[in-house]
């Protein structure tokens, strides 16, 4: 059973972890979570952004099948989640901790928006373990919990309605950390065949334009005696497209088909004319 290995993680001090990735040294701490589904949803949010360290401070219900159901593929984070009896235990070996809170407080660490805070969090992760501390779904973090952190981090939401679901807040913070970790360009993995082909060479593009002009003249679309500005405009149009090799091949294949149609119609017209001439001789 999935939860069989869970007991070994309960009530033990949070373990330190060395890794080449700063995201591996960021722990998400959920304090006094009341609904187990939010724990599972938070685990899912973390895994999609590449974080894996989940710590729980006195959750009301955990382990729980609702957490498992909401994890939707992130069950491994629930199995390895560490349950602590206090915030102090969850933050014990951290060198830096951020309280995630929408409320501005007179007493407590200076507040930063999530995007600005992400860079500082990752910089501190180079020095050791860091933590994101989230409060209870109803009451949020207490003043005492906030004062155990070095920063308050807020999500710059609509000031008229700042309420976010716990897992949504976790998702946003983890997303900002992922962006910062990869300098705004996180790797994108895809199992699909790459759609793009190499850029077309200057020579191939010029041959395409010669082919295009020939077909436009032969089809009657372009009068070579009065070209006006048609060709320069077409050059500008295709120049903006930055044509690729495959695209040049497609376009020239299309032009070949048009040429065959034009040539076929001319042969038919010539054959009809010959028939008329022969019948009249």
List how many beta strands DSSP finds.
7
Strand content: 5-15%
Distance between the termini: 98 Å
Provide the helix percentage: 40-55%
Number of helices: 10
Radius of gyration, in angstroms, nearest whole number: 32 Å
Descriptive keywords:
281 residues, alpha/beta, Alpha/beta knot, Helicase, Ruva Protein, domain 3, 2 domains
Structural notes for this entry:
- This protein has 281 residues and is an alpha/beta fold.
- The protein folds into two domains: 2-181, 3-Layer(aba) Sandwich (Alpha/beta knot); 202-279, Helicase, Ruva Protein, domain 3.
- The chain contains ten helices and seven strands.
- It has a seven-stranded parallel beta sheet.
- The model has no long low-confidence stretch (mean pLDDT 87).
Present the secondary structure layout.
Blueprint: E1 26-31, H1 36-48, E2 53-57, H2 65-71, H3 75-79, E3 82-84, H4 87-90, E4 94-100, E5 111-113, H5 114-125, E6 129-134, H6 143-146, E7 151-154, H7 166-181, H8 202-218, H9 230-241, H10 245-279
Parallel strand pairs: 1-2, 1-6, 2-3, 4-6, 4-7, 5-7
Helix pairs in contact: 1-2, 1-7, 5-7, 8-10
Q: What is shown here, in short?
A:
The chain has 281 residues and is an alpha/beta fold. The chain contains ten helices and seven strands. The chain has two domains: 2-181, SPOUT methyltransferase, trefoil knot domain (Alpha/beta knot, 3-Layer(aba) Sandwich), CATH 3.40.1280; 202-279, Helicase, Ruva Protein, domain 3 (Orthogonal Bundle).
